[in-house]
Amino acid sequence: MTVWEAKFLSKKIMESNEIPLLVGHFGVGKTDIAREIAQEAGRDLVILVLSQMEPGDLLGLPVRDEKEGKTKFLAPDWWPEDGNTIIMLDEINRAHRSIRNAIMQLLVDKRIHNHKLPEGTWIMASMNPPEEDYDQVELITDPAFLSRFFILEITPTVEEWIRWAKETNVHENVVEFISKFPEFLTVKNFNSLKKIIKPSPRSWVKLSNVLKNLSQDEKEKFAYVLAAGIVGPESAKVFVDNSTLVDFESPYEILVEGKIPSEIDFHKANSLLVRIVDFINYVDDNELDKLQNKISTIAQNFIRFSKKVPSDSAHAFLRMLIDLSSQPGKKGEFSDNLLREILRFQELTNEKR
Fold first, then answer.
1. What domains sit in the chain, N to C, each tagged with a CATH number?
2. What is the pLDDT of residue 135?
3. Cβ–Cβ under 8 Å, residues 47 and 58
4. Radius of gyration (C-alpha) of the chain in whole angstroms
């Protein structure tokens, strides 16, 4: 999703007393999102860079209470004075083993030891994607831990970055280069944490809490992205396709039946493309066999659909197909065939012009 979408949804999630987890490569603006939300909401911001913290920094230090004859923990110096605060848990994927349990206690009970967070405190978290380029710990792959968050995976658009670069006085040669060669802005694809997520009674309640805080138009734009980030893409697909939350077509209807919306705004387009990507990513082999027989129809319908969506989003879909085409098995074969068919129809269209 875009930086704007991640910022918008993070605020909605925290307003619902839930916790967003921003996932993206370094430099995509995760910390800036927290700062902007805090500024706009009039809240103090506490950023805890967990990879650089010792246990005492997070937990506070133990002291002896002579009157009661017990050991107590002092509140750490970052502890908020009131609930008008956002706590940003940065780099949770690099948190030391000794403070992971404390993080869980903070997420679940909003407390550490005998210190309870002031009522109304918002919590958000961020991390790099789970790839071998980063120093990871097994915490990231723990479904019980991840189930506490709404996972929001960020890929900034070129337009967003260029606008930010001009506002922050990035050198004009750099801005000009990225404008001409947007493929060098950032890595577009990474292993998705959403693959690990499984639905649970708790995760459905969390989803309900946030949906209550959205307008109908916002649900149409973001229901799938939210659901995929808390109950997983497969459950989200069935949920959205079989509910009244979204009144536009499903990926199957678009790709196979050719039901292309006549009008579609930027954020709905992004939502649909995410659903289409996940549709191909998580479809089973039996369904792939059926789709193989309709590959030309799917390619033509995608080309029609791509004319309705931002070019960046359509190109991201094609890059995803390139990645999937290298996989062994039916998914790789299907993705390769679909990619070839899309390119063939595009060449035919260009020749006619």
1. 3-58+74-196 (3.40.50.300), 248-352 (no CATH)
2. 47
3. no
4. 22
